[in-house]
Amino acid sequence: MQTSLHILLKSTIVVASIATGVFAQAQTSWPGTSNIKVVVPFSSGGASDVLTRTLAQRLQDKIGGSWVIENKTGAGGNIGMEAVKAAAPDGTTISSATIGTLSINQFLFAKLPYDPAVDFEYVSKIWENCNAFVVSPSNPARNVKEFLDWAKQRPKGVNFGSAGVGTTPHLAGELFRVRTGIQAVHIPFRGAAQSMPALMSGETDFAIDNIASYTPLIKSGKVRALAVTCPERWPTMPEVPTMAEAGVADFVVTSWGAFVLPKGTPAAISSKLSQAITELAADPALKAKYLEIGAIIKPTTPKETADFAANERVKWREVVRISGAKLD
């Protein structure tokens, strides 16, 4: 006669076996012939969109499935993230999230329709890129120290432009103002198409903006790069010093993207996807393609990705507070 303990042990073994079987099946069968939708919460043609499309094609070739990109824009990326939150947790919907949607927006918006810390399963970082500290060619400064000396001599201080309130260039400019002690006023524009010409003409005094966007202007001499905000010098601009080398300590500002899945998606799927991204990232051709676009492909494990986003929230919460930026 079986005791209650024996029955309990058998039940536990059966449940564990079923769970193991489900995990293994998800890991081996996904994506199969499924249609995989990758939601990019930003416009087609931007850096996030191009980098995501490049990787999605490689993933389709490597692990199967039919991968399509959906640009679901609005509210600083919040609309796209909300759509992924509400999707079925079966691996058929992925968000190509960013620093903004995972680590900044919750401090900018009074009401966020998702919680980046609890509403998603983290997969992997995809890319990182750098910002460049740039000035007009007419500016007398040839390095950051000279710029700071020049800025402190101006009775009304200086100004800096960005593509809008709450963008990383805006927040980076505010952080620079605080770290260096200069008097600086933010001038928000309605996109890079306005902020870039303003810098080139000298209407604004400096910008700390996406290196991919500004590389053509830097190479053509239409703006001057005084520093980059990544931990090491940027591979395609080895002559430009880091902020630390330029004399501004503790000023690392990188933009990044990551894949996340709806909460409850089996861990086997996120693990398989993360591993596939890691393997693809070792391909020199893909590395070169990402650098050409203006980013470094930088995969991480699901746990590393979640931990990284959490650490970024600590930093950007304080930066948003300093800036006073708020969005409805």
Shape: globular
Query: Quick one: CATH superfamily of the largest domain?
Result: Bordetella uptake gene, domain 1
* Helix proportion: 40-55%
Question: How far apart lie the N and C ends?
Answer: 67 Å
Which percent band covers the strand fraction?
Answer: 15-25%
Could you say what the CATH topology of the largest domain is called? D-Maltodextrin-Binding Protein, domain 2
Overall number of domains? 2
**Whole-number mean pLDDT:** 91
- The count of β-strands is 10
Low-confidence runs of at least 5 consecutive residues: 14-27
The CATH architecture of the largest domain can be given as: 3-Layer(aba) Sandwich
Topology pattern, helix = H, strand = E: HEHEHEHEHEHEHEHEEHHEH
Radius of gyration: 23 Å
Major sheet, described briefly?
8 strands, mixed
Q: Compute the number of helices.
A: 11
Describe the structure.
By secondary structure, the chain is an alpha/beta fold. It has two domains: 32-129 and 255-323, Bordetella uptake gene, domain 1 (D-Maltodextrin-Binding Protein, domain 2, 3-Layer(aba) Sandwich), CATH 3.40.190; 130-228, Periplasmic binding protein-like II (D-Maltodextrin-Binding Protein, domain 2, 3-Layer(aba) Sandwich). 46% of the residues lie in helices and 20% in strands. The chain has eleven helices and ten strands. The radius of gyration is 23 Å and the shape is globular. 42% of the residues are buried. Mean pLDDT is 91; it is low at 14-27.
